[in-house]
Amino acid sequence: ELKVEQNPLFLSMQEGKNYTIYCNYSTTSDRLYWYRQDPGKSLESLFVLLSNGAVKQEGRLMASLDTKARLSTLHITAAVHDLSATYFCALGAGTASKLTFGTGTRLQVTL
Amino acid sequence: NAGVMQNPRHLVRRRGQEARLRCSPMKGHSHVYWYRQLPEEGLKFMVYLQKENIIDESGMPKERFSAEFPKEGPSILRIQQVVRGDSAAYFCASSPPATGGAGELFFGEGSRLTVL
Q1: Cβ within 8 Å, pair A42-B98
Q2: In angstroms, what is the C-alpha Rg of chain A?
Q3: Cα–Cα distance, A27 to A55 (Å, whole number)
Q4: Are strands A105-110 and B88-95 parallel, antiparallel or unpaired?
Q5: Residue B108's pLDDT is what?
Q6: Strand ranges inside B1-116, DSSP E
Q7: B105 contact residues in A (CB cutoff 8 A)
Q8: Residue scoring higher pLDDT (A43 or B2)
Q9: Shortest Cα distance from B105 to chain A (angstroms)?
Q10: In a designed cystine with B94, which of B25, B73, B100, B112 is the match (CB 3.0 to 4.6 A)?
Q11: What's the pLDDT at B39?
Q12: Rounded to whole angstroms, how far apart are CA atoms B116 and B113?
């Protein structure tokens, strides 16, 4: 059974600081996704990582994938308040798009 | 180009009643997935459907829950004789026909069920 763990579960950081969210998973996977969820809202797709060593960046967020270590990271650079949300990693395997989600990291960026 | 549409957005039921949640996938998408999110938790897969077929229902509770995706009309997740533990947000997602296995899911805004 595929298990996905994120840490930390909760992160409070000041604006302007850098931090990293970690996503560990237990078995081989074809692809890894990062999603953002605002309270009471749906999930917004941030990144799709398909191969070992993949790195993608969008604004202040950068995601990477190390399939050998079964680890993905989401790095936040110079955080701003608008980044406050819950971030989920999710893994897909096989031909269907069924995903296994991590527990989520609730990020709070304070002024 | 409308996204994944779910309704109702909020639903309140008393214990023992039935809840029906509807999902219309994005245009051109033929695969529908239902996920459940309990408060302060991640999403858990429930069921994967294509038109008129249940492909994978490994995440569905054995009793009271059913899902369908008819040839015409939206996908429906049905919960019979609801209990308080069914209170959750139910998200529907859709994807286009499989393209080498890297299909991305597009999520609706969810239906939030509260059982009194």
Answers
A1: no
A2: 13
A3: 20
A4: unpaired
A5: 94
A6: 5-7, 10-13, 19-24, 31-37, 43-50, 53-56, 65-68, 75-79, 88-95, 106-107, 111-115
A7: 33, 45, 97, 99
A8: A43
A9: 7
A10: B25
A11: 83
A12: 10
Q: Do A97 and B33 touch (CB under 8 A)?
A: yes
Which distant-in-sequence residues (6+ apart) come within 8 Å of A36 by Cβ? A43, A44, A46, A85, A86, A87, A88
Taking a contact as any Cβ pair under 8 Å apart, which residues of chain B between 19 and 38 contact chain A? 31, 33, 35
Under DSSP, is residue A83 helix (H, G, I), strand (E, B) or coil? Answer: helix
Buried b (16+ CB within 10 A) or exposed e, A49-72: beeeebeeeeeebbbbbebeebeb
- CB contacts, 8 Å: A45 with chain B: 104-106
Name every chain A residue with its beta carbon within 8 A of the beta carbon of B56. 96, 98
Enumerate residues 6+ apart whose C-beta is below 8 A from A69.
none
Report how many helices (DSSP H) and strands (DSSP E) chain B contains, helices first: 0, 11
Q: What is the pLDDT of residues A58-91, one digit of tens each?
A: 999 999 999 999 999 999 999 999 999 999 999 9
B100 pLDDT tier (thresholds 50, 70, 90): very low
- Name the residue of chain B whose CA is nearest to A104's CA: B42
Residues of A in contact with B91 (CB under 8 A): 42-43
Closest Cα to residue B85, out of B43, B114, B64? Answer: B114
Choose the mutation target among B33, B107, B111 for the interface with A, i.e. most A CBs under 10 Å. Answer: B107
